[in-house]
Amino acid sequence: MEHGSYQNPSASTFSITEEDHTLANSLRLVLNKDPRVSFCGYSIPHPSEARVNVRVQTTGDPAGEVLKDGCQNLINMCEHVRKTFDDAVDKFKNSKATDSMDDSQ
Amino acid sequence: MPKLPDHLELKRTRVSCKLDAPNDTESILYSGAYASMDVDNSSLESFFKDFKVVVNRITEDEIEFDMIGIDAALANAFRRILISEVPTMAIEKVFIEKNTSVVQDEVLAHRLGLVPLRVDPRLFSYKSEKDEPNEKNTIVFGLHARCEQKEPRRSVKSEELSWLPKGSMFLLEIENKASSSTTAPKTYTNFKSSQDELPELSDNPIHPKYPDITLARIGPGQEIELEAHAVKGVGKEHAKWSPVATAWYRMLPEVVLLQDIINEEAEKLVQKCPANVFDIEDTPTGKKATAPRPRSCTLCRECIRGEGWDKYVALRRKKDHFIFTVESTGALSPEVLFTEAVKILEDKCERIITELS
Amino acid sequence: MLASQMRGLVKEHLDSYNYFISTGIKKIVRVNNEIRSNVDRGIYLKFLDVKIGEPSIVLDGVFEKINPQFCRLSNMTYAAPIEAHIEYVTETGGQKQLCEKKDVIIGRMPIMLRSRYCVLYGKDETELAKLGECPLDPGGYFVVKGNEKVIMIQEQLSNNRIIIEVDKKGNLVASVTSLGATLRSKTVIMMEKEKIYLHLNRFQNKVPIMVVMKAMGIESDQEVVQMIGRDPRYSALLLPSIEECASFGVKTQRQALEFLEKKVKKPQFVSAQSEKEDKALKVLQDIFIAHVPMHGSSFRAKCIYAAVMMRRMLEAFLNKAAVDDKDYVGNKRFELSGQLLSTLFEHIIKDTISFGLERALSTGNWCIKRFRIDRKGVTQVLARLSYIQALGFLTKIQPQFEKSRKVSGPRALQPSQWGMLCPCDTPEGESCGLVKNLALMTHVTTDEEEGPLVSLCYCLGVEDLELLSGEELHSPNSFLVIFNGLILGKHRRPQHFASALRRLRRSGKIGEFVSIFVNEKQCCVYIASDGGRVCRPLVIADKGVSRIKHHHMKELLDGVRTFDDFLREGLIEYLDVNEENNALVKYDKLGAGQNATVAVMSYTGYDIEDAIVMNKSSLDRGFGRCIVMKKKSAIMQRYENNASERILPPTREGYAAERMQALDDDGIAAPGQIIRQDDFLVNKSTPKITKGPITSGVIPDSEYRPTPFKLSGLAGDNSVIDRVALFADKNSNMCINFIIRQTRRPEVGDKFSSRHGQKGVCGTIVQQEDFVFSERGICPDLIMNPHGFPSRMTVGKMIELLGGKAGVSCGRYHYGSAFGEPSGHADKVEDISETLVKHGFSYSGKDFLYSAKKHDIEKLPSIFPLVSFQLVLVFHGERLQEVLDKMHARGFGPRAILTRQPTEGKARNGGLRVGEMERDCLIAYGASNLIYERLMISSDPFQVCRSCGLLGYYNHKLKAGICSACKNGENISTMKLPYACKLLFQELQSMNIVPRLKLSDV
């Protein structure tokens, strides 16, 4: 991963290789939820190059840290999604099981 | 806590589908978008609080569930990962010993590659170009089909692909004749142990998911003899590694009757809809139309076609409610696929964090 | 009739070829049956009969049957021996002896595929498959030296027919191109300044027609007038000509002949024995309207013919509507393979038959001096990109004019082409409208026996010409009967005569393609049985009723009155519509493309200018793949000293082994091997000494040098050897043919097209996860830009888009027609929309699609539903061109010898021109030094003499430049000039222009 300007730590462009909309757009989502972020966006400079540039501007905090926090938040969200999903699947399967038990009775 | 005025709230949370085009399709991500109105647009806390999953249907190959309270970006990320980044095993190399059928070698190899295999890819590791094929990264299938002189033309089906847990049976051209006497003859793979000794595979042999996929047609006297090596890969590389037939979502439809629609008009409306969204309710004032099944709306927009009908009916989509469908090709069950996809997104974040620190 | 039941799509080709082989060739041989020795006229060779045997070849003395696929693979000509039954005289010891011999092979005749003499004739599907033939292949072409060659249908103005036209000067002209038994001539009678003249290229200039008439024995002016007709208007028009003739003092036949004698062109090489006297008479006998036969020394038939020509011309003078239209299809004849072959055969019968036929077919040069035919490009290689294309080739008609002419008349669509020629299928560009195609149902006739028809006419009451006086010729109520351009005589009840003939035709007593046409204006009955007329099947309206002038449509189409000249007559045969449809259904069997799910929307911006965006996953799954086959052949040359090239087993180790991977142990590449550019196909070596006798019996290995046959000229790295064929060529050298196969998947730059001619290149290939998808999870295979529609106005495609979508959702074929059709079989747009709605789609076919990625950062918008257009299934056929075949670049490479400029074209590894605009780019970019360097500094040094300004040369002995004009080396400067510039100077010098260079310092 490359990193944009070092002069102003509150505004940076991160160039992430081997990634695309999948990660960048999710990051943009979580970073935009962060009140410290004043701007966040991304671009894919060329379609035949596996690279995405993520621009983060903050209200003062170092952009790298904010991005790291964003990643962590995203992980937390994913974990929550997974847990909720697994619960829902279990619930569905249980209800199915009881349904079929009811049916068999 | 202050709330947005209705018309803005509508724009924020709904896509309105007009006859010609949908409106308000963008999602407003920025947390401070409505700061001037003292409204907090989005926050992490609300996600943790409101996110819900409701499963509608699970079969062997398919799952449909509702994800409520999640942004499109994330739902889309899961979808994209499902299609292109969850690994599976697929045939990558085909060693053709004999092919006298009319199907060309490369066409046959291509067809073999697309055959879905029923095997858990998590048991295997990726094989790089330099790696020697071994029991950890390669699955070998053999195929030997023959049509005898007097037999009629027949199809070669995928069930004829037989798993060779001990690895390749084809001998590598012997480079060193002296060593061949002492050690086992060299083949195209280098398996240290048989794959069927693995507890996961011993009573669950690897085979193509469907037994009846036609691979080729062979006529009298024609013969196909080959060995197919399957390796682990992702859908980005080639669609054959995609674990899903497809994975997609749609936003929850919302059909709103803006005015009371009564009598003939109501019947007309019920008639118009091919998806059977509307019903008629008997009220003291007469027959009145209702929309009890918005989910089945296919957005054909018949109900708002024609002069003035868009004043009666509004078709909307809820922006944070997704009806998600995953169709597995058989390597893993669809619910496992989804959790795998979420994990992959976590891994991506992990990577950024390590690279940043 | 049986043949017409099974009418194939190229029946006309097969018929004409069959006719040639079964009848034509025998006739030709009968005419040219004798070859006499120039030394002893008693010694001769005579052909008694001739027939065509089975397709076969004699190899090393072994007789072997051949089939077309075998010929294609082994670069042979699919031909059969011509077996003649001959009679000849031998002389042994002064004793002449008459001998007879049967089945003498005099040459080999190329066989048309699927003709009666082809091994494929009458074979069923499995038998064809065994012979390696496609059952759907129409045949109608030849296999010459392994290539499939089609003889194009040649369009010509019809022979032996009078055509009245207006020439460039505005004069009325009646012309006839006569095709006699032995020669071709053109007779022109023209009216200039109210006088009538004859133009014949044997006369130095025009000659008065009255003199000609007198020379032919009609000395009385009155008789001429009678022959033309006694209408006073005609006589009045003739008067100036008669007066002119009188003013020359020509009154008798003798005087006329003397007068003409002076006008006859002197032969270029005056031979001693040419009789001085009778030249004019000879010309009139042989050249003047050559197709009208002489009866002994009587010119009567020719006189009457000339009179009829004049009459027609005068008629046209009085009534402008009587002028003929050259572009009228009835005045055209189409020469098919059979006719073309027969003229060629006749020409070369006393020459090398096999070689002549083979060369003409493979080069397409038809050069027959006797008939002054010199045509190029008569044959073409059958293009096989799609089935329809191959069929189209067989119906293509080559024009008589050269393409460059800027004329509009012949290019325009003629009303008479209705039903005969396809109104839409013609190429764009220079040959637009000139190259035509036969319509589906059209048939082109072949020659029919004339004798029986002529005698039949006399039986039906035609009065013989010989018995008529000039006066009777044009008597009212009697019609002239003209048979294939010959005047037979006259008939007093033309309609009765015509209907009698027609009845005979319909009952099958005379040929089904004989046409009978009563021209009331010209008072003529035209009967035609000659070959090359186009005709089409029509339905009889009222059987036998000859009053078919007015009334309903079918009668109208029956043809007589609507087109005011003679048209191929009404009903020819019943052709069941269903039968014809059977032929059409086959199009479905051999589709030329694939169905694709198409979204019509703009996406990524890589779709401007008709480019299309493709889905990578679709391509992964096999969408749009194609297999390309190329043939490579190697010959094991045998040299005059009997040394021949040999094949060595490959080396398996070391540096060379890598290039020999594909080789089998026999040194020839094996089928199924993957092969790359420059890999060896044959590990061949050539003897160093190829001349003179070999000293020792065996050539040692050291006397061979390796000359491997490598794979070249095939881009891409996934070539596979499909088949290998070993055979002997006609010099008994061993040949090895490799068929190399490539399976190609679409890539950026490949060109695709749907039907409707909506073509476009692939602009980008996008991952499936980035592609749009619909509410139902459907992801398109390709995206097409909607801007392709408004300017092209391809409404048909829009209907296909809708119909395709409806088709997949209801599982039924949809029939594409905009008009619903009275039968109700076609699907109107309304019906299609209804089907769509029934299956939950929008009536307009538009779907909402979800964007799979997001764009726009500025406004921070969405990832989300994008406006969408149609998501539909459309037949997206035909890959047209592929970049892999087009891609070309070179650093250095071959140059042309003459100019030392890089060669042209990809096939010759040519250079790419830096033209004016490229030069502009370089200058604009500021790289003008590059141009200077390329054009000047990198050029060749030349010695320029400062005193005379001419180019000198560099003398290596003296190590100095020398001027060859001044004979010294005093004022020599070295200058860099492009070689082509030097060449220009030399060429100018050769034309007596002296270019002098004046040098000065910059």
Describe, in plain words, how this protein is organized in 3D.
- The complex is a heterotrimer of chains A (105), B (357) and C (1002).
- Chain A is α+β, with helices and mostly antiparallel strands.
- Chain A has one domain (2-99): Gyrase A, domain 2 (2-Layer Sandwich), CATH 3.30.1360.
- Helices cover 52% and strands 23% of the residues of chain A.
- Chain A has two helices and four strands, in the order ββαββα.
- Chain A has helices at 21-33, 63-104; strands at residues 2-3, 11-17, 37-43, 51-58.
- In chain A, helix 1 packs across helix 2.
- Chain A is elongated and about 70 Å long.
- In chain A, 36% of the residues are buried.
- The mean pLDDT of chain A is 88.
- By secondary structure, chain B is of the alpha+beta class.
- Chain B contains eight helices and 16 strands.
- In chain B, strands 1, 2, 3, 4, 13 and 16 form a six-stranded antiparallel beta sheet that branches.
- In chain B, helix 3 (72-84) crosses helix 8.
- Chain B is elongated.
- Chain B starts with 5 loop residues before the first helix and ends with a helix.
- The mean pLDDT of chain B is 89.
- Chain C is α+β, with helices and mostly antiparallel strands and 1002 residues long.
- Chain C folds into seven domains: 2-156 and 334-394, no CATH class; 163-267 and 276-290, RNA polymerase Rpb2, domain 2 (Dna-directed Rna Polymerase Ii 140kd Polypeptide, Chain: B, domain 3, Alpha-Beta Complex), CATH 3.90.1110; 448-529 and 538-571, Hypothetical Protein Ta0175, Chain: A, domain 2; 592-623 and 748-877, DNA-directed RNA polymerase, subunit 2, domain 6 (Dna-directed Rna Polymerase Ii 140kd Polypeptide, Chain: B, Domain 6, Beta Barrel); 626-744, OB fold (Dihydrolipoamide Acetyltransferase, E2P) (Beta Barrel), CATH 2.40.50.150; 888-937, Alpha-Beta Complex (DCoH-like); 939-1002, DCoH-like (Alpha-Beta Complex), CATH 3.90.1800.
- In chain C, strand 39 and strand 40 form a beta hairpin.
- Chain C starts with a helix and ends in a 12-residue tail after the last helix.
- Chains B and C meet through helix 3, helix 4, strand 13 and strand 16 of B and helix 19 and helix 21 of C.
- Chain A: This is DNA-directed RNA polymerases I and III subunit RPAC2.
- Chain A: Belongs to the archaeal Rpo11/eukaryotic RPB11/RPC19 RNA polymerase subunit family.
- Chain A: Residues 12-83 form the DNA-directed RNA polymerase RBP11-like dimerisation domain.
- Chain A: It is found in: Nucleus.
- Chain A: InterPro entries: RBP11-like, RBP11-like_dimer, RNA_pol_Rpb11_13-16kDa_CS, RNAP_AC19, Rpo11-like.
